[in-house]
Amino acid sequence: MDIRALTAAQKYQAARPATEPIPGGRTAGDALRDLGRDFATTLQEGEDMARAAMTGSVDPHALVQALSQAELAVETVVTVRDKVVEAYQEILRMPV
Fold first, then answer.
1. Could you tell me the pTM of the whole model?
2. Dihedral angle over CA of 8, 12, 13, 16, nearest 10
């Protein structure tokens, strides 16, 4: 048996606990659900602020800030969507 193979197996065994999921930890689905909720909340706040601005009960500065946050959130989601579509198209172009 080659000593390098034995050493590699020992190092793999030692590193294996670092790659195991944390019990009770967040999953990718949980993270995506939370991101979706944050996105929806940001848009809702922008809409609420716009409605309040129409009645004159909100400072214009707060309206601009809420709308710019909503705009940034939409731009981020569109960028992520474009990257996902691009990755999907790359997978479709792979030879089988």
1. 0.65
2. 180
